[in-house]
Design brief:
508 residues, 6-stranded mixed β-sheet
């Protein structure tokens, strides 16, 4: 049984004109509504308006367009069922074999700053989900598409067979119910004002394993919209965590940057217009930790950088692109994962999705700490007698953006374009400071004239004093401790400059 009639009504019109043109070439009649019908007509395609098809006009400001028995009956009557077919014929309900619908952008609308309740309500789609659910229920006979990524696979089957396979229709129906569940969940979350929370995401891929090989793991959602694996073995749970952490770090910077991470912690970060030079600055911080780690940059990876890092055993290399020579060189390593991140990922950090963690009996949901905060007006946040120099202010800005990505308690020594020593994840901040100093000395790096950054307040003066004794001349920290006067006094006694951002960036 071939597809003879399609109904197309989409909010996201990407690819729809080309898809409809190819349906027309396959002699499929096209029904449509509103803006979609106009877009198809403007492209020279013959379109039957749904209101003409049903004999009932759109009304109530377009709220009622497709809610009609001739539409839903066309999806729902069971083909091959004599009673259904006779009744459909009696009522003048022809079959609709293909439905293409994507929904009003409710999630994007409510994510906008300052959105009104009326605007949110007008972006709740009614007819779209009703049609999708009806067509998907009858997927034995009806093909239903809600994702533009499925246009080409469906066209391929139509060109070959005139229809889609049952396996394809079942897969597409599953995607429909995943989409409508997520859509309804988003609406419920909004209307409840946080009193309920639901999430529904399709399986993206099963992962090699979780934290350990005996733990199963899977990845859900649209990861491939933001990251593309170009080479290497399949990813594990920890690889996904590393990729996200690394890409978030380099997206903090506008200038070219190279970072090296291990277990999501940065162990070296360098800034330079030449990526090869940026690498040297990052690598000098810690020449042992990069073994089996992650290398990331925020510019297309060059051949000169690929040449030097190809000699190091690395698990993952991440960049927004790879020069052809660099990619060819790195792909000689069979197991090395090459990951490309898209511009869309950087944009998500300006309107980030929440962090979701399991908890006994349910979930915890938290706003994502996506961008370093507290750097605006830094000159006005000096709490010491001595004002920081221009270079120290620049180093503070650099260090604050990096220390945000170090596991708490976090202490970081830096210059204005490189890390010098990093202490992460200790139970006491002074211990993190001691580790950072030790790491710098192990690397043969001087901390004289450095800036120290602390992701949270110094609860006592001991951490600051240890940093000063190691050579730091300036500090950046949130402030807010009851011991702030003692910490500031310790800085003044040692001639240090210090800024308090008023914002902490704890990371557990």
């Amino acid at each position: 049984m071939s597809i003879q009639r399609a109904l197309i009504s989409v909010s996201d019109k990407s690819g729809i004109v080309d898809f409809a043109k190819q349906l027309h070439e396959l002699k499929v009649e096209i029904l449509s509504t509103g803006g979609t019908a106009k877009a198809l007509r403007d492209a020279g395609l013959p379109v039957v308006e749904v209101s003409d098809y049903t004999g009932f006009p759109e009304c109530l400001d377009g709220r009622v367009k497709t809610l009609h028995p001739k539409v839903h009956g066309g999806f729902l009557f069971i083909r091959g069922n004599a009673e259904h077919e006779a009744r459909a014929k009696e009522l003048g309900i022809p079959p609709i074999d293909l439905l293409v619908v994507n929904l009003y952008p409710f999630e994007q609308t409510v994510a906008k700053a300052g959105v009104t309740r009326d605007e949110a309500m007008e972006n709740i789609d009614i007819g779209g989900p009703a049609m999708l659910r009806g067509a998907a229920k009858n997927h034995e006979s009806v093909t239903v598409i809600t994702d533009p990524a499925d246009y080409e696979p469906v066209l391929l089957e139509l060109r070959e067979n005139g229809d889609t396979t049952l396996k394809t229709r079942q897969m597409l129906a599953a995607k429909v119910y995943q989409r409508t569940a997520a859509y309804d969940g988003a609406i419920a979350n909004y209307l409840s004002g946080g009193a309920s929370f639901s999430v529904s995401l399709p399986l993206h891929t099963t992962l090699r394993y979780g934290d350990n090989p005996h733990q199963k793991a899977a990845l859900y959602g649209s990861f491939s919209d933001y990251f593309t694996q170009l080479h290497g073995k399949d990813m594990s749970y920890t690889n996904v965590l590393d990729i996200e952490a690394a890409a978030e770090l380099v997206c903090e910077f506008n200038r070219p940057v190279v970072a090296i991470l291990k277990h999501t912690n940065p162990c070296g970060v360098g800034l330079d217009e030449d990526l090869r030079a940026a690498w040297d600055k990052a690598f000098e911080t810690d020449k042992q930790a990069p073994f089996g780690g992650v290398i990331v940059c925020n510019r297309p990876l060059t051949e000169s950088l690929a040449r030097v890092i190809s000699g190091i055993f690395t698990d993952i290399i991440i960049a927004p692109g790879f020069d052809a020579e660099a990619r060819a060189m790195l792909q000689k390593k069979k197991n090395l994962r090459l990951i490309q991140y898209s511009e869309a990922f950087a944009r998500t950090l300006d309107n980030p999705a929440p962090v979701i963690k399991s908890a006994p009996g349910g979930l915890m949901v938290m706003d994502r700490d996506a961008r370093a905060r507290g750097l605006e007006g830094l000159d006005e946040k000096v709490v010491t007698r001595r004002q920081p120099s221009k270079d120290e202010i620049e180093a503070m800005r650099f260090g604050w953006k990096v220390v945000k990505h170090v596991k708490s308690n976090a202490i970081l020594f830096c210059g204005k374009d490189r890390t010098l020593g990093i202490g992460a994840g200790q139970m006491s901040r002074v211990d993190s400071c001691r580790i950072a100093v030790w790491k710098a000395r192990e690397a043969g790096l001087s901390l004289d004239g450095s800036v120290v950054a602390s992701d949270a307040m110094f609860p006592f003066a001991d951490g600051l004093i240890a940093a000063a004794e190691a050579g730091a001349t300036a500090a950046i920290q949130p402030g807010g401790s009851v011991k702030d006067p003692e910490v500031i006094a310790a800085a003044d006694e040692r001639g240090m400059a210090m800024c308090c951002t008023g914002v902490r960036h704890f990371w557990h």
